[in-house]
Amino acid sequence: MKNILKRKLGRSGIEVSPMGLGCWAIGGNIFMQGLPLGWSTVDDNESLKALEKGLEMGVNFIDTADMYGTGHSEKLVGEAIKGKRDKVVIATKFGFTFEPGSREILSMEGDGSPEYIRKAVEDSLSRLQTDYIDLYQLHLGEYPMDKAQQTRDALEELVKAGKIRSYGWSTDDFERAAFFAEGENCAAIQQIFNLFVGNKNILQLCEEKNLASINRGPLAMGLLTGKFSTETNLPKDDVRSILHNFADEYHIFFSEGKPVKKLLDKLDAIRDILKSNGRTLAQGALAWLWARSENTIPIPGFKTVKQVEENAGAMQFGPLTSEQMKEIDLILHKEQDYISNIQKPII
Predict the structure, then answer these.
(1) Engineering a disulfide at 187: which of 3, 166, 271, 298 sits with its beta carbon 3.0 to 4.6 angstroms away?
(2) Secondary structure letter of residue 133 according to DSSP
(3) Which ranges of 214-321 does DSSP label H, i.e. alpha helix?
(4) In what order do the strands lie in the sheet containing 135-138?
(5) Sorting pLDDT into bands at 50, 70 and 90, what band is 249?
(6) Model pLDDT, residue 4
(7) pLDDT tier, 251 (very low <50, low <70, confident <90, very high otherwise)
(8) Is the Cβ–Cβ distance between 257 and 234 less than 8 Å?
(9) With the CA atoms of 299, 301, 302 and 306 taken in that order, what torsion angle do they form, in degrees rounded to the nearest 10?
(10) Half-sphere exposure of 189 (CA within 13 A, CB side)
(11) Is 27 within 8 Å of 302 (Cβ atoms)?
(12) How far apart (Å, rounded) are the C-alpha atoms in residues 198 and 214?
């Protein structure tokens, strides 16, 4: 497939595809205090085939985290990139504490200390079967500011040691994002951003500081694919069925396992625009992000080859036009719908 868009991973200068493969779901089920933080059942063979399909279709950016499946997602990525490491840009995250393979997250508070970082990066390198990580991200969106300096300093040391090429913070808090942005080798801020929500100030910061805005939740946890209705009931081992237990701010897309009706109605109102030129709804949602800023790199999640084919297929269409963007804004009254300062991140 011809990739008609190329993006830079911020000031690192690393060239990446306009979207990445978000690898939370393929880690499989994980839990904290008995509550699910995964996306229900997953098939490892299908996950590997899906990763391979994405690479075949021109996606060279993969975003994972050590806590996804308590190490399992990183292991799958490591298998998928064998013999292709020089052609793939790998991003992973650290901070949440767990026993590898346990499927249990010990604490949402996590650890961002230099000592922990040095251990965590070696563990991730081992699981990924590589000797360097392109983008290493702090996964704790609310990590205390009074500890952030030593975390950033430790990451700079990892760059000097050749363990990582750049770093970033997965946070929806502007103050935290702005602090990391001052780091010499900071290349990205990962934030939730889609048609319905997003921190515009962080996106502007990324544009001003030459950082990539890596967009998690680009499809609103699946709602923007159009496959859900008011009759949908997600399984109890799906994180979307219990998000309100951890963060009321994310009682946005789903409520008690059902999609929020007002968002389904908004999606219906812009359906024809998103599906222009033969796009699917998901492809239109990605096209909106590309048109929103040259710094955006959405990382839609997946569990199947079919999902990757659809998401990666969006690259052949490119961004929406400025006229389409204005029409969507008019319909959605978007300025009223943004969350200006989300505090608690989706993982």
Answers:
(1) 166
(2) B
(3) 261-274, 281-292, 305-313
(4) 20-22, 61-63, 89-94, 135-138, 167-170, 186-192, 212-216, 296-298
(5) very low
(6) 57
(7) low
(8) yes
(9) -50
(10) 33
(11) no
(12) 12
Look up tokens 């951003």; give the residue: 193
For residues 11-31, average pLDDT: 96
- DSSP state for residue 240 in the 8-state scheme: G
Name every residue whose Cβ is closer than 8 Å to that of residue 102 and which is 6 or more positions away in sequence.
70
pLDDT tens, 217-236? 999 999 999 998 877 877 77
What residue segments make up the domains of the chain, in order of their start? Answer: 7-221+280-323
- Report residue 155's pLDDT band, with 50, 70 and 90 as the boundaries: very high
- Percent pLDDT > 90 in the chain is 79
- 94 three-class SS: strand
Strand partners, 328: none
Q: CB-hemisphere CA count at 13 Å for 92?
A: 35
**Left, alpha or beta for 82 (phi > 0: left; psi -120 to 50: alpha)?**
beta
Q: Residue 336: count other Cβ atoms within 10 Å of its Cβ.
A: 6
pLDDT at 346: 46
Predicted confidence at residue 253, as pLDDT, reads: 87
CATH of segment(s) 7-221+280-323? 3.20.20.100
CA 138 – CA 26 distance, rounded (Å):
20
Alpha helices in the chain (DSSP H): 44-56, 72-80, 114-128, 145-160, 174-181, 200-209, 261-274, 281-292, 305-313, 322-332, 334-337
**Mean per-residue pLDDT, 66-90:** 97
Looking up tokens 């024809």 gives 272
- Measured in degrees and rounded to the nearest 5, phi and psi for residue 192 equal -75, 130
φ and ψ at residue 38, rounded to 5 degrees:
-115, -170
